[in-house]
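Notes on consecutive records. When two proteins share a document, each keeps its own sequence and its own token line. Never mix them. Below: protein one.
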Amino acid sequence: MAKPTGKLIRPTPESVGALPTGGTAVAATKLATARKINGVAFDGTGDINLSSANIGALTDAQAAQKYAMRSIKINGQPLSADVNLLAGDVNAWNKTEADGRYLLKAATAAAATKLATPRKINGVPFDGTADINLTPEQIGFLGISESGSGSGFYWRKYTDGRIELFGRFGLTIGALLDVVFPKVFTENPMIFIQENGNPEVNGWVMRVRSLSKTGFSVAWNQWSGSGAGTAIDVCYHAIGK
């Protein structure tokens, strides 16, 4: 046995293979002070698993609910960026196309099935939805209440009582003739008479005499004897009540 030397020996941590006070171990089975990783406690004694919630992310299910997948398209437009749909993408007309087909409410159409404001034509309302028929009275003429015709004549009676008579008869130049009206007047009418252009009457002047409600007579003034006995056609027009 060695003899004590009488000296005091003070071993150090290093000399005995220990850590000094406040020293740092190269490795340990547990952290002296537990730490949190994204809010999850960790002291080194076991593994930890962070969830999507711990790192501020969404699960696949949550992401699908909140965001559209890039493979999804809206009216043929992929969601790889902001989508701006045009009228054609939703089977609609753009403004130019719509303006070519429709009018603004304040605009005026070149043609329509109905007038916005009905008009009157000679006092008869007209909006374009149906035809109208104007009477003679509505356009400033008298209506015809009666009419008749026969061989060589036609007559008509107006709503104011006036009668208009058109007649035709044959006549021999130089001969007298009494003409009876096919429609009797209530007063002596006004009469116009004309022969139909026979050149042989140049020596004769036809005239009306004895005009009455029922007829008149034809007489002649002679300048020369040329054309005497020639047959001619005569037309007359009588107007009265």
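Protein two starts on the next line and is unrelated to protein one.
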Amino acid sequence: MRAGRMGRRAFLRAGAAAVGAVGVSSLLTACGSGGADPGPAPATAPAAGGTLRAAFVGGGATETLNHLMGPTALDYVRARARHGALGAVDPSAPDGVRYDLLEGIDISDDLTEYTLRLRPGLTFSDGPAVTVRDVVYSLAAPATLGSLPFLKNAVGAFDLDAARVEGDLTAVLPARRPLVDGRLLLCQSNLVFREGTTGFTVDMPTCGPFRMTAFDPGQGSTFVRHEATPRPQARRAPSSTAWSCARSPTARPAPLR
């Protein structure tokens, strides 16, 4: 994946890579902290723990923690590891999406209202609960904070200024016009951060599977598991991850040699 500004197609590839990066249970046997030959695949699922080390083609000094404006695919992959996602597109799932922070999305009969139901018990890495106010704020952020054009699909499809928040776990989003594919728009690329966020830093509270501990643009980043993430994809997550940046698709960074 080349460095440079990222188009929609590259972004979708990045989303797939991000799901793979944070849904790491299938990689733990081969990429754990041990260096020995893992031998035959175990009969049971691998246990949680260890350190996942991975390398991605990065963007050098242009890399940023602001995934809304990040010009490279790696910026989104990194963000997907530490910011919780509403869900991901999954054609095999009943609704065509696999929910993450959300428990589900209900659609009105006339296709003009989408009701988002947040999973209970979600918290940010510093302790406070995640609420639907954080979700609505994050959905509106591409317009209020600025973003690359292809991240503004939800803002264009829903009147977020008219969203109705019902308690901490339910929000009703009015569609600007009847929508058949609103679930796909909401779950395709939207990540959640705390209401009021205006900048993205290493130590900001996050609600994804991992918490960032270090970031060096063009060099790499490290994460530790967010232990208070009670979602299915985190059950067999590693205890930590270390991502290195390669300068070309054929390069092999030192930590992986």
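For the record: The chain has two domains: 8-83+208-256, 85-192.
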